[in-house]
Amino acid sequence: MKYSYFPGCNLKTNAKEYEHTAVEVSKILDAELVEMPVFNCCGTVHSMVSDNTMRRVAPVRILSRSEEHQKELEDTKNTVVTLCSMCSSTLKVVNEEVKEDEEMLQKINWQLERDNLKYSGHSEVKHYLEILRDEVGFEEIIKKVKKQLKGMKIASYYGCMLLHPDKAKIDDSETPTVMESLTLALGGEVVDWPYFKTCCGSYHVVDKEDIVNNQVLKITEGAKKRGANAIITACPLCAYNLDSQQVFLQKKGVIKETIPVFYFTQLMAIALGIKLKNFEDHHVDPKPLLKSLGLI
Amino acid sequence: MAKAISMREKKEELDTVTIYIMGQGYKVPSSLTIMKAMEYAGFKLKRGVGCRAGFCGACATVYRKLGDYKIYANLACQTKVEDGMYLTQLPFVPANKAEYNLDEIKPSISTMLRFYPEIARCLSCNACSRVCPQDIQVMDYVQYSLQGQIDKAAELAFDCIQCGLCAIRCPAEIPQYHVATLARRLHGRYHMIAPDTLEQRVKEIEEGKYEKGFEELMSLSEEELKKRYVARDFIDQKKA
């Protein structure tokens, strides 16, 4: 099975290892992510104004471009797959909106008409975690595991965009289990903790770092207190905030110990026996932990 | 005989079209380009005209056709007149151009955003690509810049002649063609390998290898220069 994969901007800049490991893992699981030939920005954060059609052109353009891409792929589904949870949320919400509002879809299609594009309204947007859970299945993943993640005590951090709003959630908003199930499938230990969707501070990292630092302190200390030695996430912005601000807090003397932050696909890659390229994207060095557990 | 004249008149009528330059109608021969038609109509072009060969990007023209809602744009020197064209020239486009020292910046998304933060306002409407007389996928190279894929942005924007039409159409007010220049410069400076022959030649120039030859040429009379030009010898590529 092949999926039309929409990367978005972060996967090409700050989260290259997320993309690399996801694509490699997808090949082993026969749920291959094939990148769309051309793609634009998802629009980052869907418009809350119901009649702002212009802000919805970008996500609908992606949906229509993906439909073109799906025609080229053999053995595929009418699905656009994302890795970034922000892209996932924006695309899912807009997809539902234009499915419900034919008039809006028509207006947007008039904008796409001269580029020979038209969105039918028949595609589904899926986060890769959903593909793993609903289409590959954890049983299948367990079969492919070569090296169990023995000794990894993993706190699954969902952030906001995977669970909100209702139109975009990939799991139950209050008791999500997809990343925990994945952790178990890979042979890791699940850490139960209350901060799985406490806001990371998001874009405030640009102008109000204090807000982000407070959030990151709460989240990472919370994970450590409950015995976690790693945090996994699916969002490049969450990963950046949790990772980089820990180093900042450590330098300031606020915290002594740091906890490494991984993308879930990185741990999948380790468990499925794929050699990781590098840890360039990381701020907190994850190598000491992985070495001590004999995982690299 | 009378019939022949009327045929000729009719033919002339067929071969002329009416165009409107800034609202004023003119009958011009249908075989002309917009630029030549403007001169035919009596305009003396000082700005908004350059190479007359579709390379310099100075003669951007915006027009509508009678009864057609669409707005069109093209180069005046490359487009034939059509009946009912409403034309205006766009000799210059105001667009901020960033200043930078290429040796002090890196080919990354943060560089693109530092000098042209407005690229983050792109709505993906693609109005820029549709207006481009060079058929460049302008929106896609803006998006590549936003994705930090500087190499792809530079290659996609290679044919840009900087007419500025994209910048005028953009609802996000991005000066796309300056963004493209930055991408190409970064690509050239950091990704491409400089050819040995170029480096060799630059070194020779710096060492003054050609000074003597130039001095000699500069001292020649116009007559002598012409004579030398006609008698010039091309380098035999095989021997060289």
DSSP strand tally of chain B: 5
The stretches of 5 or more residues of chain A where confidence is low (pLDDT under 50) are none
Q: Beta-strand percentage of chain A?
A: 5-15%
Evaluate the radius of gyration of chain A.
Answer: 19 Å
User: Greatest interface and its residue counts?
Assistant: A-B, 19 and 18 residues
State the fourth-level CATH superfamily of the largest domain in chain B.
Alpha-helical ferredoxin
Number of strands of chain A: 8
| Low-confidence segments of chain B | none
Describe the fold and architecture.
Chain A: Residues 4-92, 155-243 form the Cysteine-rich domain. Chain A: It comes from Candidatus Heimdallarchaeum endolithica. The complex is a heterodimer of chains A (296) and B (240). Helix content of chain A is 46%, strand content 11%. Chain A is built from 13 helices and 8 strands. Chain A has helices at residues 10-13, 16-28, 57-72, 85-100, 102-112, 128-136, 138-144, 178-185, 204-207, 209-225, 236-251, 264-271, 287-292, and strands spanning 2-6, 32-35, 76-82, 124-127, 153-156, 189-190, 230-233, 261-263. Chain B has 3 domains: 15-89, Beta-grasp domain (Ubiquitin-like (UB roll)); 102-190, Alpha-helical ferredoxin (Fumarate Reductase Iron-sulfur Protein, Chain B, domain 2); 197-222, no CATH class. In chain B, helix 5 runs antiparallel to helix 6 (150-156) and helix 6 (150-156) crosses helix 8 (176-190). Chain B has 240 residues and is α+β, with helices and mostly antiparallel strands. The chains are: A alpha/beta (296), B alpha+beta (240). The interface between A and B is medium-sized, with 19 and 18 residues.
